[in-house]
Amino acid sequence: IIVYDTFSVFGGNVDGDFIINNGTVGIGADSPNRALEISGNNDSGAKANYIRITDTDTTSTADNQQGGIEFFSSDSGTGAGVAASIEVVYGGADGGCEFTFNTAPSSAAGVSERMRIADAGFIGINENNPENQLHITTSDFKALQLEGPRPTAFFKETDGSADENFQLRLNGGNFLISKQNDAQSNAVDVLTVKQSGDVEIDN
Predict the structure, then answer these.
(1) Largest CB tally within 10 Å, which of 5, 46, 94, 119?
(2) What's the rounded Cα separation, in Å, for the pair 54 and 88?
């Protein structure tokens, strides 16, 4: 089918179910604004604009792809190729799945996995088998960076006791370990490491 302006297919109870409009495709959208636009009313959990990717392989095998999306670059400098992708792979033989996010330093280099959300909910960065809620693997010292006027890591305990928390903070060039309340509004420093190397311990 060659379409020069608008082509519509109507069906079911909704007019304009499928529309091609000047090179854009709309499903449930009368005037699609992107190459593909899917429109639907999700009231009451209708999932009217969802996309489903089905794998017809009836035997799931760990790390086999269930489905994915590729982002292809036509760059003529280094060569065309897939520059990034999002894939869903099987976590094992029980059909559970894991998300992988893959990137490439150049479009011709081929993608490598950079981050994974495992079937247990654990997140791995440069780690395809995360063993904790966040698992970062690195070959050098560059692993985690907190940046800001007063970069802070807050550790909140939820065992039922109030205001039994700690935080790590960099402030004015000093590294602070502090007790902190649940609202993060009353830090009490217990240890300070200064740029000079001096250490202050507060009772």
Answers:
(1) 119
(2) 11
Sheet of strand 24-27: strand arrangement: 6-11, 14-21, 24-27, 36-38
Among candidates 137, 186, 149, 150, which has minimal Cα distance to 166?
A: 186
Q: Residues 69-95: what's their mean pLDDT?
A: 94
**Minimal CA–CA distance to 93: which of 59, 66, 68?**
59
Confidence of residue 11 (pLDDT cuts 50, 70, 90): low
Q: State both tokens at 176.
A: 């602070």
- End-to-end C-alpha distance for the chain, whole angstroms: 79
User: What SS3 class is residue 124?
Assistant: strand
Cα gap 85→33, rounded to integer Å = 23
Distance CA 153, CA 136 (A): 16
Tell if the pTM clears 0.70, that is, is over it: yes
Pairing between strand 24-27 and 14-21?
Answer: antiparallel
12: which DSSP letter? T
Q: How far is CA 106 from the centre of its chain?
A: 21
- For the chain, helix, strand, coil in percent to 5 are 0, 40, 55
- List of residues 6+ apart from 20 with CB closer than 8 A: 3, 6, 7, 8, 26
